[in-house]
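> forwarded from #structure-qc
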C-alpha cells in the first residue's frame, strides 16, 4: 500500500502569503505612513505659523500700546507754557563734564531718512507725585546766583529737577536744567514758599547745579521755572530687531537701556500739524519745528510699527515690503504712493536677513498730544 506524506494534508487556510501579496501590503503600508506623515507635518507647520503669528501680533500690539501710552503723557509739565516749546535746554552734570542740550518739546522724531530706516521717538514729560505748575520769577537771577525768587514754589521738593525758561528766548539766552536743594544754614539757600535754591554740591542731584548752564545775562523777572520732578526723557528705537528704550537717569549722565519687545523690525513716525490754526490736523511730515509757534502746530503723532513672525518659512512667503495704509484724505510729506483708493507707504524690511522667509504685519495709530492741546 502506497504511503501518503503529511504535507499533502495542509489546507488552503494554512498556506502563507505569496511574495506578491507581501509586496502589495508593504506598498500600501508605506503609502499610508507617507500620507499620515504629510498630514502631521502640514498640521504642525500650520500650528507653528499660527503660534508665531500670535506672538507677532502680541509684540506688535504691546509695542504700539507702549508708544501710545507715553506719547499721551508727553509734554506734561514741559508744555505748561506753550511759548517755551522748542527752547534748547542746557545741562551739565558736574564742573568737569561737558554741557549737553535737549529740546524742550513733548515728542521729538529722529527721522531715519529717505532710505526708510527706522525712526526714533523721544518723549519728554514731568514725573512728579503732585501736579506740575510753572513758577514765575519775581526778581532777576544772575548766572552765579544760587536761588530763584518766585511768586510761589507750590509742590516744589528737594531733588526735583527744574527747567528755567527765559522771559524772552534768544541765541544767547536759553533754558537750563537744575535741581532743587535746601540748606537751612541761610535763608537764601532754604526752600520756602517764595524761594527755590539750587546750590551745587557733591550729591547725585546737586551735581546738576553748575552756573555754566545759566546764560551769562541771567534770567530777568517774568521768566519762570518748570517743575519736571525726576523727569522722563525716553527714546524709543529699533535695535537688533527689537523695540528698546533709552531712559535718562537723573542721578548721572548715563542712560538706562531696556529691550521691550522682540521681532519689531521698523518704526516710523510723523508729526500731525495744524498749519492754518483751525484746530484740525491738515498735514503730516517729519520736519522738526524750530520755534514755539511751530511746535504749537503739532497736535498729534502718527506712528507705525512692523512686527515680524519668528517662524522661518522654507518658502518665500513675503515678496514685497509691507504697506502702511494712511488713508486717502490726509496730506503727507513725503508723498505716499497710490494704493487703489488709498495712499500707502512701503515700510523697509529688507535689512532683515532672509526677510522674504518671514511674515510681517503693520500696526499703526494716531496719538493726540493732549497736554499741548489743553494748554493751547
Amino acid at each position: 500500500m502506497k504511503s501518503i506524506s503529511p504535507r499533502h494534508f495542509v489546507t488552503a487556510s494554512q498556506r502563507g502569503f505569496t511574495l506578491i501579496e507581501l509586496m502589495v501590503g508593504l506598498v500600501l503600508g508605506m503609502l499610508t505612513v507617507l500620507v499620515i506623515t504629510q498630514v502631521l507635518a502640514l498640521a504642525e507647520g500650520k500650528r507653528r505659523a499660527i503660534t508665531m503669528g500670535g506672538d507677532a501680533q502680541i509684540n506688535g500690539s504691546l509695542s504700539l500700546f507702549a508708544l501710545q501710552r507715553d506719547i499721551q503723557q508727553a509734554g506734561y509739565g514741559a508744555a505748561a507754557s506753550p511759548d517755551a516749546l522748542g527752547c534748547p535746554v542746557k545741562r551739565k552734570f558736574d564742573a568737569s563734564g561737558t554741557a549737553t542740550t535737549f529740546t524742550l518739546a513733548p515728542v521729538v522724531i529722529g527721522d531715519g531718512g529717505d532710505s526708510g530706516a527706522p525712526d526714533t521717538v523721544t518723549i519728554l514729560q514731568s514725573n512728579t507725585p503732585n501736579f506740575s505748575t510753572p513758577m514765575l520769577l519775581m526778581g532777576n537771577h544772575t548766572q552765579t546766583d544760587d536761588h530763584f525768587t518766585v511768586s510761589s514754589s507750590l509742590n516744589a521738593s528737594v531733588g526735583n529737577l527744574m527747567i528755567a525758561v527765559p522771559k524772552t528766548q534768544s541765541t544767547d539766552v536759553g533754558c537750563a536744567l537744575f535741581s532743587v536743594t535746601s540748606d537751612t544754614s541761610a535763608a537764601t539757600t532754604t526752600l520756602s514758599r517764595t524761594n527755590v535754591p539750587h546750590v551745587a554740591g557733591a550729591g547725585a542731584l546737586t551735581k546738576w547745579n553748575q552756573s555754566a548752564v545759566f546764560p551769562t545775562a541771567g534770567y530777568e523777572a517774568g521768566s519762570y521755572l518748570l517743575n519736571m520732578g525726576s523727569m522722563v526723557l525716553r527714546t524709543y528705537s529699533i535695535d537688533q530687531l527689537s523695540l528698546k528704550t533709552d531712559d535718562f537717569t537723573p542721578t548721572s549722565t548715563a542712560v538706562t537701556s531696556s529691550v521691550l519687545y522682540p521681532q519689531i523690525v521698523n518704526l516710523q513716525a510723523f508729526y500731525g500739524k495744524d498749519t492754518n490754526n483751525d484746530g484740525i490736523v491738515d498735514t503730516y511730515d517729519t520736519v522738526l519745528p524750530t520755534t514755539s509757534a511751530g511746535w504749537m502746530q503739532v497736535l498729534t503723532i502718527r506712528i507705525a510699527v512692523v512686527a515680524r513672525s519668528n517662524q522661518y518659512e522654507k518658502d518665500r512667503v513675503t515678496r514685497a515690503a509691507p504697506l502702511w495704509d494712511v488713508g486717502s484724505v490726509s496730506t503727507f510729506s513725503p508723498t505716499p504712493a497710490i494704493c487703489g483708493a488709498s495712499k500707502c507707504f512701503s515700510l523697509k524690511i529688507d535689512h532683515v536677513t532672509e526677510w522674504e522667509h518671514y511674515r510681517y504685519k503693520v500696526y499703526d495709530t494716531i496719538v493726540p498730544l493732549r497736554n499741548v492741546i489743553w494748554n493751547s
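QC bot note: The mean pLDDT is 90. The longest strand covers residues 298-308.
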